[in-house]
Amino acid sequence: MAKRAISAITILSSLLVMFLAMAAFALSYSALRSLAGDNGIPSNLTWLWPLTIDGFILAAALSILRGSLLGDKVRWQWGLLAAVTTLSIGFNIAHAPSTLLARMIAAVPPAALFLALELLTGQLKSDIGRGGVIQSLAEAEQQLTQRRAELDKLTARIARAERQAELAEVSSLGNLAADDGPQGDALALANVARQAHADNVLDSLLSFYADNPRATQTEAARVVSRSRQWVSSKLAELETEGAVSRNGNGVEVLTL
Question: Which residue, 26, 110, 147, 156, has most beta carbons within 10 Å?
Fold first, then answer.
């Protein structure tokens, strides 16, 4: 609701500023054209004279807007804009009757044109800048989503590789169990070694969380050289067995 209200106000404000700029231009145009006709410019060319003055004000304002958006220095454009605006005010005053009020009235249109264009360029610059920020945030969010998807795929590959390695190890041990003699002893030793390694990994996981209860599962997985899914599964098993407790303080190790 607030965004719609802001958008409506922005559009209304821009339209109003444009109307004021057009009104100021029309008033100044009339005075400058009349002045040109009174001072030797052919009647069929008098319409060009106001455009060379007030039209230049518009061109300078657009140049300032472009330079500001690109991050360039616009001091000389501001100087030109101020000079031509002063020139337009002077010509409008010269065309007016020689009373103070008439001259003040004549000075208003070019000054109003200058201020209206400044308001309009400021609004455009603000809108364009805000649009650029929104677009950058959208692109950053899209990139973050892609990185998360890539990380999930990589984690899934690691989990599959671990399962395949475990299946290969079980298959190898099964082949040894089918034989007699010393190979049977090798099977027993392999089972003992495998269980000892699993116990060591589990002890490492518990020790890590005992020292770092607020650590993430990804950090724990790196320490014990396992996948995040494995850590998550083991924590669930340990919590069921009462070995750990997960609460607002992280992972609390109850037994070591």
Answer: 110
